[in-house]
Each structure stands twice: as C-alpha cells, then as structure tokens.
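step=encode ok
step=design start
structure_in=
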C-alpha cells in the first residue's frame, strides 16, 4: 500500500504466486498460545465471558490486575524469539537524542531506516520540537497500579467484516489503528476507541483518496488520541514539524497542506510521536528480512504500516491482541473490512505480506501475541 496508482500496477506482484506456497513452515510450538484477550485463567475456553479480569476502557482510574499472559514471559520461554527481541532498542525518536553522532550514524542509511539524502535542517528542526520527555515514550507514565498494559492493534483486513469484535477491542487499555481505519458503520466489528493512529504521510493521504468512497473521509481524531509518524520520507519530518507548530506545510511535496485538517485543532509536541529509524531497521533485520530486499524492488521494500504498528505494540505493551491482520485463510475474506464487494487481497511489491503472515502465526503459536482468526 502507499504507492501512487501508476506505480502500483507496475509493482503488482509476483507474490501472488508465492502466496500459495507461503504457509509451509510450521514453527515448533515451544510456547502455548493464549486463549485470547477476554479469557480468564489459563486452560479456560475462549468463549467464556470473563468474570475475572476485564479491562475497562479508560484505564487511568481503574485498578489494574497482573497480566494473565505477559508477552515477556512467553518470549523467555521461546529460544527462537528470545534471540530476536531486543527491548533496549529505542522505539521513538525524540529531540534529546539529536547529536552529531546520531546524524553521522543515520545518514548512512536511506529512509525509513535513516536520513541519507535528507535535509539536515528539516530533520534537526523537527527533532528540536520533540524535546519533552513525552516525546520519548508512547504511553503516559504508568500509575502505580498499572501492572499490565493491554493493547489491541487493529489492521484493516476483511476478516473483521461481521466479526463483532468491537467490544473486545475497546476493552483494551490502548487501541492502535492505521491507514484507512474506517470506524463509522463498523463499530460492532472494530470498536470505536483509538489511542494511536499510525501512518506515513504517503499512506495516510493515499487512504483518504482511495477509501473516501468507502467511508474513510477523515483520519481518526480525538483529545486522547496520539499520532505515530513513520518516517519513510522527508515529507514525514516536514509534516510533523508543521503539525506541532500548527502552521501550513511550508515546503516540499505537501506544501500548503494544513495539518489541522488531518489531525484536528490541537498542535502540540505531546500529540505526535515519531518512530526511530533504528527501530524500523532493527524490526526489518530481526523480524521481517524479506527476500525482496535482494530484488529490483529492494529499495522500495519496507514492513507494512500494520506490521510496524503491531511490532511497536509488542515492544511497548505487556500483552497484545492483533485484529484484522493477515491469516492463513485470507482468501476467504475481502482485502479490507469496509469494502462492499469482495476484493482480493493485493500483494504489493513494496511489502512482504507472506512473510508478515508467517510471523503473526508464529508469534501467536509462541503465545507472544494473540491473533484474531476465524
Ligand atoms: C540491543 O540494543 C541495544 C541498543 O540498540 C544495543 O546496544 C545492544 O547491543 C543490543 N543487544 C543485542 C543482544 O542485540
Ligand atoms: C523545547 O523546545 C522549545 C522550542 O525550541 C522550547 O521553547 C522549550 O523550552 C524546549 N523545552 C524543553 C523541555 O527543553
Ligand atoms: C461483509 O459482511 C456482510 C454481512 O456479514 C456481507 O453481506 C458482505 O458481503 C461482506 N462484505 C464483503 C466485502 O465481503
């Protein structure tokens, strides 16, 4: 996703063929999948309405219970994933870390993994605005009783159409959404709560164009909502700076755009987060190192927006549920949950959905996340 229409045709993959052969490798299941976000104690069925821990929407005031299925524990038990997760990798980029050293380091790689060829001025001025401690962390500081941060990440997959997962999604402490996240008319299936919206300027604007007629007429907005910029281009730094300052975009691809039309009236650094290029690089290297990197499409390849959000949640939350992500039976469902007629899932050359699908399946088998399937 996120490519101009002309280019899309060009890049239309190739991977459709691979799609058939994707689901071969079955990982040994050292861990145990956990029964789902609403289940109570271990070994209870999935259908029981939990009488125990019930995460209620706004968590600031509620008394939190310990995690039933902390992902850290599942990782400890799983040698393969234990060797991949590195929780010391910084997730967000903020002003406090902008140094000559970082500049030298990041200018060696191209976006989204670095700053090669990008304007130092554009980057430095943006990072200079992300100088508060809030910019360095995703969540507001935990209250003393917050023992377990439960997150739902909602992809836009057709599997959610008719799923009736809305209440279960909204019951998480934080809900992540991305790109064409249509809510109106799909509340029963996808819920209404949005804590984070993740995007690149390119994917956001393409979603507003491509899915407008299907109901994506504006980006989710709200007082408690935070935006996660994925820095795939200098555009993202320039838009972010303008959004924080509350001014029209002064230069470049999006010149003249008013950020308020996307993100609402609040212009402040605390509203916006920026993924660290090193984090994207680490995720790609450790979790989604696609064979596409060594093809002609190598420079275009990057993990999908959904993958970046789900992996962000796995590095910041204690327990993660994934809804609307690709499953092995994806052919049963439309590309997106908000389509009116069934559209096949499109495999674009800039992402590797086959690899992502295998990763979600394996993380689910290992009990590190819970993947909604049906
Ligand atoms: C984990 O990440 C930190 C920060 O980037 C790095 O210093 C450390 O060497 C990494 N550890 C491993 C085992 O990869
Ligand atoms: C952050 O930067 C802004 C703009 O340069 C400045 O006004 C503010 O005092 C800085 N805040 C901190 C905590 O350094
Ligand atoms: C979505 O679900 C409804 C009812 O379950 C069904 O009628 C419709 O065809 C589905 N849409 C797509 C695009 O599959």
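sequence_out=
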């Amino acid at each position: 996703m996120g490519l101009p229409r002309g280019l899309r045709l060009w890049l239309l993959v190739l991977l459709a063929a691979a799609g058939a052969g994707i689901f071969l490798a079955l990982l040994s299941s050292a861990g145990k999948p956990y029964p789902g976000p609403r289940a109570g104690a271990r070994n209870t069925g999935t259908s029981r309405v939990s009488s125990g821990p019930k995460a209620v929407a706004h968590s600031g005031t509620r008394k939190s219970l310990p995690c039933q299925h902390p992902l850290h524990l599942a990782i400890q038990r799983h040698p393969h994933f234990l060797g991949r997760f590195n929780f010391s990798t910084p997730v967000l980029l903020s002003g406090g870390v902008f140094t000559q050293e970082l500049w030298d380091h990041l200018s060696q790689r191209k976006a989204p993994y670095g700053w090669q060829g990008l304007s130092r001025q554009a980057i430095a001025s943006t990072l200079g605005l992300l100088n508060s401690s809030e910019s360095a962390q995703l969540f507001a500081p935990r209250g003393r009783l917050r023992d377990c941060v439960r997150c739902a990440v909602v992809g836009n997959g057709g599997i959610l159409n008719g799923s009736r997962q809305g209440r279960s999604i909204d019951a998480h402490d934080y809900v992540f959404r991305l790109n064409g996240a249509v809510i109106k008319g799909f509340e029963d299936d996808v819920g209404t709560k949005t804590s984070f919206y993740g995007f690149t300027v390119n994917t956001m604007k393409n979603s507003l164009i491509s899915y407008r007629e299907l109901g994506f007429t504006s980006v989710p907005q709200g007082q408690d909502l935070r935006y996660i910029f994925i820095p795939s281009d200098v555009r993202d730094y320039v838009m972010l700076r303008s959004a924080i300052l509350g001014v029209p975009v002064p230069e470049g691809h999006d010149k003249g755009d008013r950020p308020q039309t996307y993100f609402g009236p609040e212009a402040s650094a605390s509203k916006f987060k920026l993924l660290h290029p090193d984090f994207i690089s680490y995720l790609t290297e450790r979790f989604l190192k696609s064979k596409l990197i060594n093809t002609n499409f190598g420079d275009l390849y990057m993990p999908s927006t959904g993958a970046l959000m789900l992996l962000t949640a796995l590095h910041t939350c204690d327990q993660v549920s994934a809804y609307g992500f690709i499953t092995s039976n994806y052919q049963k469902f439309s590309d997106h949950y908000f389509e009116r007629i069934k559209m096949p899932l499109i495999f674009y050359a800039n992402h590797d959905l086959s690899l992502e699908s295998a990763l979600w399946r394996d993380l689910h088998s290992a009990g590190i996340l819970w993947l909604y399937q049906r």
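step=design ok
step=annotate ok -> The CA atoms of residues 125 and 320 lie 34 Å apart.
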